Amino acid sequence: MADADELRRELAGQQRVLDAQRGYILAQGDGGAAAGHGGCAGLGKHDGAGAAGAAAAPAGAGLQPLEASEGQSAADECEVCCSRRRDTALGCGHVTCARCSVLCADCPFCRTAVTQRLRIWL
User: Fold this and answer.
1) N vs C: which end of the chain shows fewer Cβ within 10 Å?
2) pLDDT for position 74
3) For the residues 50-73, what does the mean pLDDT come to?
4) In the CATH scheme, what is the homologous superfamily, with its name and number, of domain 2-119?
5) Beta partners for 116?
6) pTM of the model
7) How far apart, in whole angstroms, are the C-alpha atoms of residue 69 and residue 94?
8) Cα-Cα-Cα-Cα dihedral sign, residues 94, 86, 18, 10
9) What phi-psi label fits residue 91: left (phi over 0), alpha (psi between -120 and 50 degrees) or beta?
10) Cβ contacts of 94 within 8 Å, gap of 6 or more
């Protein structure tokens, strides 16, 4: 019984972290297109999966994220929202923009649970 209570507390703590990370990413966004996008089945769902590194500070502070680059090509465009640059790799290997990666509990491409997010810089 004590183990179950400990797991519930840990899950609640991870959920608070995930909610804070979602808020952080959404506050940085452009108020945008992913919020009403129907292509993300995991939008708004809470599956309790951890979000390792979703809002962590970058190791190379001098590097620029992809979204800050000019001359965005179709190959760099997020295939979920079609409005931002792809800059976050999910644990399964698929890549989306930071906002879509946080809004989706499951990968929008292969539907596996998102367990890790890794910000990508050039």
Assistant:
1) N
2) 73
3) 49
4) Zinc/RING finger domain, C3HC4 (zinc finger) (3.30.40.10)
5) 52
6) 0.47
7) 21
8) positive
9) alpha
10) 107, 108, 109, 110
pLDDT: which is higher, 67 or 111 = 111
d(CA 71, CA 65): 13
Name the percent of the chain in helix, strand, coil, to the closest 5.
35, 15, 50
Nearest to 117 by CA among 100, 47, 78: 100
How large a percentage of the chain has pLDDT more than 70?
A: 61
Task: Provide the residue ranges of all domains of the chain, joining segments of one domain with +.
Answer: 2-119
CB atoms near residue 109 (< 10 Å):
15
Collapsing DSSP to helix, strand or coil, 50 comes out as coil
3 state DSSP class of 121? strand
Q: What is the mean pLDDT of the chain?
A: 72
Query: For residue 43, what pLDDT is reported?
Result: 44
* Confidence (pLDDT) at 109: 92
pLDDT of res. 68: 47
